[in-house]
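User: Predict the structure for this protein chain, please.
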Amino acid sequence: MKAIIPVAGAGTKLRPHTYTQPKALIPIAGKTILSFIVDQLHDAGINEFVFIVGYLGEKIKEYVLHTYPDLVTHFVFQNERQGTGHAIELTRSIVGNDEVFIALGDTICEYDVKEVMDSPYSMLGIKKVDNPSDFGVAAIDEEGFIEQAVEKPNIPKSNMALVGLYKIKETDLLYECLSKLALKNVTTHTGYNLTDALDCMVKEGVKIKSFKVKHWFDCGKKETLLYSNATLLKKSGGNVPTDHPYKDCIIIPPVSIADGCEISHSIIGPHVAIGANTSIRHSIVRDSIIGSYTNLFEVVLDNSLIGSDASVKGLSRNLNIGDNTEIDFG
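Assistant: Here is the predicted structure, written as structure tokens:
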């Protein structure tokens, strides 16, 4: 089985951070969004990955090759963003007849991966939501099989949203359905959508079963990213070097602090993730994500997202600052 991870989106809801960093490489709970996805699938036994890249794609490629040198990796460039269906169709020559597991590049979920992999059926991940019109929606029978899949319907037939996890056994038919969408110019919300291809497979008689995810972590915008960061830190307990040299500091777990950080005369936590080689002095930081090689001095930060190579001096609260930024409140 091969894994396909589309990561070509521009991540406009996370700007200014995504002006210089792909959304998939945004840090959360001591890892990147992409690493959560790759590690989960690799631990389940998948060793070959196809990454669909576009915006800032070279950064994705560089990160993957450096972080996962032992994996078999392919990179497909989606130069024109024409939807998830178009993105998946670009992988046809690489996938061939192999089964695939498709995980959208901003989807962090908790679920029984082994159960999904061992199932004799194609499988789609679902989660009950309050606002199904914002998602792809699956209508499901009593045995959990998909009866219909619709992308962002005006009048949803169910409140079960597709979370962006798809195990497909009938790959030949998947690509045939994707080709039909392009040939007939069937678009949904300005693009060729994977959901429409899945619905095509159901209409062709393929039995596709649903599986419920335990947790679905939204990483699409600042507020939900910080909430997901806090939740994942609680689950993992964080990561602080046991022999940390932080002088006159109070660390309130859960906190994740990467290597090379210099922290002194500060209160850190709870729910804080700090990137590598960051300096924090005379500051209070809680419920925030701080990038790498960043300098904080005499600040009070709460519910803040600070990029890499940023410098913040003086008293401040509730910031949303991108990479390579310098701010002096003094």
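The chain has a mean pLDDT of 89.
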